[in-house]
Amino acid sequence: MEKSLIEFRNKFFEKLYILLTSQWKILGIPFQNIKSKPNFIIDIEGLLLLSLSFFRLYPREFDEVINWLYYQGNIVNIQRLKNISQKKAFSSLSVLSAVADFLSENQKQPKWKGLTKFKNNKREVLFWDKDLKPYPQFGENEETFLKHNYLRGKISLKNDIIFDCGTNSYFLNLKLRHLLGVNIRSEIISYLLLSNEGNSNSISNEIFFLQKSVYEILKELEKGNFIFPTKKGRAINYKIDKKNWLRFLNITEPLPDYLNIAKIFYAYDIILDFLFKSKEKSGISLEYSLKKAFNEFLKEIEESNLSLYLPEKTPHFTQREIYKTILKSIDKLLN
């Protein structure tokens, strides 16, 4: 692998580690020496999907996430996870199946069973080192993961995870789920609070739920005077009383600009998947794969509302410009 790609890979891994662990830390996992905080609303489903890919490089962090899911998984929207996985081919889907199977067996909760269908067709070691070489394994295999063709040691669950949503704005989604339940209703309210207005079509595209379902909930919320219709041409948009909602939710910090974090994290997963497979390529094949991954990355970023202020010559970016753009995008998400 060429030197510039190795340097980019190391920087990308370093920044992505900070981005992910900074979120898990405020969710109660005691990661050390992480001072950065996200400047966006935590999307637990997007965070989980990207973490299960990236933390294959970090066994301890991977198991901390499983431990968190064991104690706090009731706040995860399983239907939304399914919906995202149907639209975005995260590289972690077969790993998610193994994790969901482990949780369903150990928690005795059927909700996770619906996520166990993504199969890994070849037997492989679950964890890698930073050079993408299989991690040495010690002791017995975790049988649930072995069923999904992943080799790893036994999982040892720890103590319960405790965290307080407090008054921080990045907990908006979680606070709404505690209030309204883990359902489409809380996703719609969250979107309207962040984007100021929307209709059934625009909202469904952003929150990964069917337009018909969004339309029905919008009508119910309108009847209760929780949201207010406004005409925009032929379309009917809906707005929400942001000030009163934030006071009721006890959120004292200003809300950040709306970002579709699931799409942003899928963009990073595309780059991560390229890096995981890059050791098998070289020369023209490697260059083609990089540009293909970067174009897919840009498509997701453009749809996510994250502005990178790119010049018009994007299709002709050099490798150095590609690397710089990707790393810069992560910096924009951290305080």
Supply the key terms.
335 residues, mainly alpha, Arc Repressor Mutant, subunit A, 3 domains, 14 helices, 5% strand
Protein architecture, described:
The chain has helices at residues 3-26, 44-54, 59-72, 78-87, 93-107, 143-147, 172-180, 184-195, 200-207, 211-223, 242-248, 261-278, 283-304, 319-331; strands at 124-125, 150-151, 197-198, 228-232, 235-239. With 335 residues, the protein is mainly alpha-helical. It folds into 3 domains: 3-151, no CATH class; 169-248, Arc Repressor Mutant, subunit A (Orthogonal Bundle); 262-331. The strands form 2 sheets. Strands 3-5-4 form a 3-stranded antiparallel beta sheet. A two-stranded parallel sheet has the order 1-2. It is globular and about 60 Å long. The two termini are 32 Å apart. InterPro entries: WH-like_DNA-bd_sf, WH_DNA-bd_sf.
